[in-house]
């Protein structure tokens, strides 16, 4: 479900401290530290809270698929821009050809 390495990597991706994750997941910092160090095996419910907090912050968990489990950042919602090409604006300064002769294109 969630490995200690995935948890550490997920926090690094979003630049969260253990305290940040603790506040977001409502799981104690000591539990998170023990889990990430491999000294503690939290219950499924605790791991679910940790994982959900990281996912809410934009982390995607990649399942074991032969290449190893991992994490990555989700695409931000603002990265998708809906354009209407009928409303495209051409600025005059971009319409002139300012390339030197023979530059091609």
Characterise the protein shown here:
This protein is elongated. With 105 residues, it is mainly α. Strands 1-2 form a two-stranded antiparallel sheet. It contains four helices and two strands; from the N terminus they run ααααββ. Helix 2 crosses helix 4. The chain has a domain of 72 residues: lambda repressor-like DNA-binding domains (434 Repressor (Amino-terminal Domain), Orthogonal Bundle), CATH 1.10.260.40. This is XRE family transcriptional regulator. GO terms for molecular function: DNA binding. InterPro entries: Lambda_DNA-bd_dom_sf.
Q: How large, in whole angstroms, is the Cα Rg?
A: 23 Å
CATH structural class of the domain at 4-75: Mainly Alpha
Number of strands: 2
How many angstroms does the end-to-end distance come to? 53 Å
Q: Assign the CATH architecture of the domain at 4-75.
A: Orthogonal Bundle
Strand-pairing-aware structural class: mainly alpha
Residues in helix, %: 25-40%
How many helices?
A: 4
Question: Largest sheet, if any?
Answer: 2 strands, antiparallel
CATH topology of the domain at 4-75: 434 Repressor (Amino-terminal Domain)
Share of β-strand residues:
5-15%
Query: Which strand order do you get reading across the main beta sheet?
Result: 1-2
Q: Quick one: overall form?
A: elongated
Instruction: Note poorly predicted spans.
Output: none
Query: Mean of residue pLDDT?
Result: 84
């Amino acid at each position: 479900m969630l490995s200690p390495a995935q948890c550490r990597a997920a926090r690094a991706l979003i630049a969260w401290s253990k305290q940040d994750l603790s506040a977001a997941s409502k799981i104690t910092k000591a539990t998170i530290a023990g889990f990430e160090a491999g000294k503690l095996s939290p219950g499924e419910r605790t791991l679910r809270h940790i994982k959900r907090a990281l996912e809410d912050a934009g982390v995607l968990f990649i399942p074991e698929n032969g290449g190893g489990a991992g994490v990555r950042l989700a695409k931000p919602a603002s990265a998708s821009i809906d354009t209407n090409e009928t409303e495209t604006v051409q600025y005059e300064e971009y319409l002139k050809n300012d390339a030197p002769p023979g530059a091609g294109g």
